[in-house]
Structures are given as structure tokens and as C-alpha cells.
Amino acid sequence: MNDFKEIKVRFAPSPTGPLHIGGARSALFNWLFARRYNGKFIVRIEDTDLDRSSRESEENILSSLRWLGLDWDEGISVGGANGPYRQTERLDIYIRYANQLLERGLAYKCYCSEEELAAQREQQLAAGEMVRYTGKCRDLTPEDCERLEKEGRKPVIRFKVPLGRNIIINDIVRGEVSFECDGIGDYIIVKSDGIPTYNFAVVVDDHLMSISHVIRAEEHLSNTPRQVLIYEAFNWPMPEFAHVSLILGKDRSKMSKRHGATSIEQYRDLGYLPEAMANFLALLGWSSGKEQEVFSLEELCSQFSLDRVVKSPAVFDLDKLNWLNGHYIKTSPVERIAKLAVPFLQKAGYLSENPDDKTMEKVQLVVVAVRDYLEYLAQINDYVDVFFNDPEYSDPEARQVLSWEETPTVLRAVIDKLAAMTSAHMDEAAAKSLLKKLPKDLGLGGKKVYLPLRSALTGKTRGPELYHLLPALGNSAAIRRLETALDVAGH
RNA sequence: GGCCCCAUGGUCAAGAGGCCUAAGACACCGCCCUUUCACGGCGGUAACCCGGGUUCGAAUCCCGGUGGGGUCACCA
User: Fold this and answer.
1) Taking phi first (over 0 means left), then psi (-120 to 50 degrees means alpha), and beta for anything else, what does residue A190 get?
2) What CA–CA distances, in Å, run from A184 to A94, A159, A400, A454?
């Protein structure tokens, strides 16, 4: 298909903020593609925007990537033969190539000021034309340059875009896309401070790093002809391009902060599981063609292919993410969910800083009792109070139930049974059998038994299964609550 | 506005000319299970943007329109 010996792809974020949902999907697609075809995945940092880039963002992005379960064969923080992998550490390389273009007359220095350019841009915009540089400095003589530099002007380097040409891109997901060169205008490849621009650095790096497939978001499609021109100027082999459609917000515009949580870390902090996030992201723009919705990372690796990537943009559907995440919460080992739940419980004050083993056992029992309710872990605090704090019996419905004349009989019966038990905690099976026998033993209907019990134990008429509640509470706490309830009801 | 991309239910999407009386999933609604609330099970409502072609036959191919989106920086 192309001239490259091996499949090699990259994710090249600019460290100007946390990892965005869209960026995460691009990273995932690249990673899946590499894993599927036994290629290499590399991560490179594009930090040529000095004002907005930061090490904090870089760290943040990398940690989000790792959290999602992605790893890379080469690149930032793991090294490799084609480093460095931070563009600001490769400046001499770009200058060398830019000078080559200058020498060959394929690029030139431009001394136009930003003010002049801004005015021109406005004029073109108003006239309804494509905004582009008109080539004012294209034919400056060396003497002109010298004079302008003496005036103190610092030049940028512009690439000389050939006139009258048509650039055709064969995009893997989009098919043939063509652009007229006349609409592009000579663009800047090196800024006046000597830092290369994206459109130039990306090509130099992708070439030097032998990138065979450029998989990225559709917003880059209109940049592609500029990059193609650079490949051609150096006579470098062209990679395949695959432009994946954007992820949209509810209002169908490009996803941004206004649409709610947009960064991976925000979802992580709300208690979304990485495998749910990856599964969901994979389904945004790709489908297996089969009737399967739940995919492990491994399954994704073995099934992913670019020809099943959809062309149309996808709206970010929080409902579906929630469903998937809930699914993973229900099906993961309890120990894991319990561990993940700890920070949330601590934040709400239910747990101390370093919960001991005994506490963790209780947390597991709590998780067993409530995890079916959860879409994401932060919601756990909506359901667990009943396990950690004795009820206040302020709920009118529960008080009503406690005032039933059969209630004391039920509560006393259970108190007796609990008191007679040899172990301090019963397990789920023991709780179930105790509960099951109750109605018959007391000669009462289930409603008359379970509702009073629930109300006495929790102060509420709805909540987790009693057979989950009893083991988590422990016998003495249960007895205490039942006795308090008898008092409260005035029996 | 110029250039570029896109167009199947509310959302994600299957569909690559007859198999479509158009999958599946999320959401929604109903029933069942549960003597609570969820979970779960079963069922239901709901879509090929419009107009022209091409063809015996079009959701699928072509053209036009409309709509939506992206992009037009010394940002990536």
C-alpha cells in the first residue's frame, strides 16, 4: 500500500491542557491500529507553542494515556532511536531542513509585520475570499532582505506554494479529497523566533520517525495539503492519511468545555473505569459490524480496523457511557471496585485516611450491596450513608411503618435471633435463610415483616437488599438499631 | 463568506443495487422478576433530509438543493 517497511503510527499531542476526549480517541485508534497489525506506536510531544505548552499538561496527558491502558513502543519518557521526542528539543533539525528549502528557492523569508497581515486578513474575509498570504515578499532580493533586517525586522520563513496545482489526498476513511493550491497561500514554516510551525515540524518528525500512517481528527484535513507539499519538496515517501470524524457535543458542534466534562481526568475523577472509557471511545466512530457492544481492550486490539471507521461525526452520548461503565462496575471483581471506591468514601467522611483490613472488608460488603445502583463511583455516596451512620428515623413513610402494631413483634424476633448467633457477622447465605423463615415463623405476610425491618434498620422504606445490609452492618449494630427503632416508635 | 467534510430512529450505529416489511445497542415506554428502590428478563414506540437522474430494481451509484460540521493564525 505504501513504501514503509513496517506499520508505525503516532499520537502527537500539544501539551496545552489535559487530555481531551477527542485526543484520547485519536490516541486509542492509533494504538489499536498499531497493535492490530503488529506495528509500532509512538508518542511525541508537539510543544512548539511556547506560550501555551507546559510540563504539567504533558505529565497529565501521559498519565491519562497510561490510565486508559495505552502504552507506547517509542517516544516521550520511554525513549527510542529517533529521539528526542519533544519538538522544542529538536529545533536544530527543523532549521536545517528549512535552510535547505531556502537554498533551493522553495521557501523564502518574509518581513511583513503582524499588523499588516491582520489588516490583509480582515480585508479578505470581508471580501469573502479564502484568507491567505498574497506573496508580497516572494521576490525580495538579498539587498531588500538586508535593508529590512537593518530596520530591525525579524523574518519568518514561508513555503512557496506552487500556483495552479491541485493536491489530491487519498484518505483511508474519506476517500479522494482534493484541494486547489491557489487557495492556500504561502504559509509560515518557521516563526520569527526561529521555532517551526506545526505544519512543518509535523512532517519533518513524521518522516524522520518513519510514520507510515497518520491517523488523526478531521479538523486536520484542511492542513493536509500543506503537509503534502512539504513531503513533495523533500521527495519523502508519503504516509497514508486517515482522518477520523470529530466527536460532537449534544448541540452537534465540536466538543468543548461548554458540553460538560471533556477531559479524561475528569471522568477518571468521577469514578469511570478505564476499560469502560476505552470501550466507549472505540465505539465512537468505529463499529465491529457484529452485534457486540462490550469489548475488552484485547478484543478491540484484535478486531479494530480503519475500514470500519465511520465517516460521519458522532455525538458524545453520556447515557451510553454511563450504561457501559455501570456494566463494568457490576462485573468487575468486588475487591477492585472496593479499592476504587475508597477515595470517594473518604471524601464524604465515611472512611479515615488509612482504612484497616477490617474496614476494607466492610467496604467490600457495602460495594456488593450498592454497586448495582451505580453508573460511576462518585455516585456511591448517594447510597451508603445507611451503612455508616445510624438512622434518624425522620422519614415519614418509615415512621408510619414503625408504628404498625405488628412491628414490635418482628423487631423483637429479629433481635433475639441476632443475639443468639455465635458469630458477630453473618454471611449473605445466613442472612438469606434467616430472612426467609421469618414470615412463616411469625405468621405474617412478607410486607409486614420486611418493611418494618427495613425501616428499623435504615430509617427508609427503600434501599439495598436486607441480606446485603445485615452482613455489612454486623450483628451488634443491627441489634442497636432495632432497639432504637422500638424506642422511636414508642413501643 | 471561500475551501473542505458529512447526512439511516432522540443518540451510537449495521447496511457496500435485489436477502430491507431496514439489524443491534443506549435512552424512553410497558410487562415480568423482586413483598422496597435499582439490577435483570421480555416486549414496544421510533429512521433511510429533499429533488432529479442511472437501473427491470436504489438507504445503497451520479448530479443538484437543503441542513449540519470543520477550517481559514508567527495555535496545534
Assistant:
1) beta
2) 22, 11, 76, 72
Residue A184 (CA) to nucleotide B3 (C1'), in angstroms, measures 9
Rounded to 10°, the helix A334-347/A357-370 angle is 100
Whole-number mean pLDDT of chain A?
94
Rounded-to-integer distance, Cα A382 and Cα A39, Å: 45
Residue A188: name the closest of A81, A94, A90 by CA. Answer: A94
pTM of the full structure: 0.95
Instruction: Report the Cα A7 to chain-centroid distance in Å.
Output: 25
The 8-class DSSP code of residue A193 comes to: T
Active site residue A257: yes
Neighbours of A160 (CB within 10 A): 17
Q: How far is the CA of A322 from the C1' of B38 (A)?
A: 15
Distance CA A475, CA A273 (A): 34
Q: What b/e string do you get for A209-228 counting C-beta neighbours within 10 Å, with b at 16 or more?
A: bbbbbbbbbbebbeebbbbb
Distance A317 CA to B12 C1' (A): 7
- Strand B reaches within 7 A of the A440 CB: no
Which are the contacts of A339, defined by CB distance < 8 A and separation ≥ 6?
none
Per-residue pLDDT of A422-474, as tens digits, reads: 887 889 999 999 999 999 999 888 899 999 999 999 999 999 999 999 999 99
For strand B, is any atom closer than 7 Å to the CB of A346? no
Nearest residue for B68, CA–C1':
A252
**What is the rounded distance in angstroms from the CA atom of residue A358 to the CA atom of residue A365?**
11
Query: Which residues 66-95 on A are within 7 A of strand B at the CB atom?
Result: none
Q: Which residues neighbour A79 within 8 Å (Cβ) at sequence distance 6 or greater?
A: A85
Beta bridge partners of A43: A11, A75
**ipTM, 2 decimals?**
0.95
Does the nearest atom of strand B lie within 7 Å of A148's Cβ? no
Residue A182 contacts residue A133 (beta carbons within 8 Å):
no
| Catalytic-role residue among A154, A250, A257, A437 | A257
Sort residue A14 into left (φ over 0), alpha (ψ -120 to 50) or beta: beta
Helix A21-36 crosses helix A274-283 at what angle (to 10 degrees)?
80
- Sorted by sequence, the CB contacts under 8 Å of residue A336 that are 6+ apart come out as none
